[in-house]
Design brief:
The protein has 607 residues and is α/β, with parallel strands linked by helices. The chain is built from 23 helices and 22 strands.
Length: 607
Amino acid sequence: MDRLIDIHTSDGCIHLGPDGPAYLLDAADAAIAGLTRSGCLIYQNRRFFHRYGAASVGAGPHIKEVSPDLWRIAESLEKGQTIQNHRLITVHGAGTGEPIAHFLVCRHANAAPAEPLIAFDSTPQNMPPEFTDAYHGLYLANAEGYTVKVNASYEKISCLPEDEVWGKHLAELQEQGYFSQSVTLKVLDGMKRRRAMDVSLVQQIITGKVVAVTGRPLYGADGRLRWVLTFVRELLPLHVLAQKCDRFERSRSGPWPGLGGWEKRDPDVPSPAGARRLPSMPSPLKSMIVAADPAFLETLNLIEKAARCDAPILLLGETGVGKDKLAQCIHAIQAGKNDIPFVPVNCPAIPEELFESELFGYEEGAFSGARKGGKAGLFEAAHGGVLFLNEIGEIPLSRQAKLLSVLDEGMVRRVGATRGKQARARIICATNRDPARCIQEGSLREDLYHRISILTIRIPPLRDRKGDILPLMLHFIREKSRRGNSNKTLSPSVQEMLMAHHWPGNVRELRNVVETLFVFSDSDLITVSDLPRDMLNRRAENGSIKGRLTENASLKDAVARFEEAMIQEVLQECGSAAAAARRLGIDPTTLTRKLKRLRGRASSPPL
């Protein structure tokens, strides 16, 4: 039996048990954050995201990073207690009874009601704000059971665009598996039996999401049934949250201090029986992506799930993390064995005055210099496939309204045309900017953001997935070796340095460094002296070598100073020349020769 838990009536403790799955009901008047035992954000409802602009699910920022004020309140809260409209609810595991997660609930007294009273005197094409702007999903069908209208929140919750269900009978949609059971049909069946009443049930959507739905009959002025309105509320499966929290805590290298005595798992303590293992690479991505770090594997699992539905995807991440590569992976999974187009668009590279003609095309004679016969735009080129809008935050504000219109209607009107053309494509957007900040600054329309961010995935930077650095290095080296018919390898000291590097340019910088090493290395063994000078300088500035490099030091002097410091450090750590030679990846005779040369430089003034 499914158990639905309302945050407003919960006593502060939720115990998972063997008596069926438990779900937490989303609330329109509350910002809800699901936190691990150590206080990292693992779930947020849309209200929480809109209020605090937190990173997307899967990134795992600590609640202190999201809001220091929330951190202070959460630390002082006891479970079930309310402070300044904030409550803390603890989830306990099945069997062990130990705390596995917490919900921080921030009530909003002035929020709209969960089930707004909507006047349906107008036509469905001109719905009142209470329908279009409602926080929860709304699904309107007529008295015959045909879909008439859904609101934007329903599209976000279900990952189904309105044109996917519009005009279709609920019996047809149920038969095709869009819903496990239709509450509209149950309401209409009750009307036939002269039992007019609301019907509530738990429904699974074709995308796999589980929601709580309530169907309500609505009557016209003549007293006859006109519509069936369904209220759709998001559900959070608590057993899924428990698994995510357990995987996340075990994947972290160092826990934050807990909140108010919250229990933390020691990474060396084995997980309880039945707990899921660390995330693995999704099968469809094994041949396309190099990854080993648990944080990135979690992201790839989200990518694989998102690729299997048609909702728009927004990829967030710093420059160089591989957003374009992941967009290609989504296209490959979606295409399967079919040949469907993939059209990438680098938005900042298109001049503002050419933006419309490039994306939407133009007719012959539309402007001076227009090609004879006109030209199809990139939207038309992507029809039936995937359109990848890279750096969407750079699109001029004056052009965002037309883009939004095309996304909503699935129709493109070329510049100079009087009629539109159908152009339906899977939309993937990417940006290295913070959407919440862009909206505040006025450079991104909020309605466009909500349209493209139904599935939002944040790609962690390379510095936050250290486990991927060495596999990526080896991959790029093998790739270069095959192309150049060489057999180059990295010495252990170089590998150590690259692992410790901060990588501000992410994967792109790593690939460029490997390219540089291949070009400038004279032997098959790449050593410290082959590293780029700016990397050596950064290492020196961070205090990892003794002595500073002056601005006018030559490359030869800089490398010599770094080599000297590295040898001295390794000798001190290893205690013998033989062990140090093994650690540095060089012959003992070579190390002996270098030591003699360094002793000869001992009286030289430092750089």
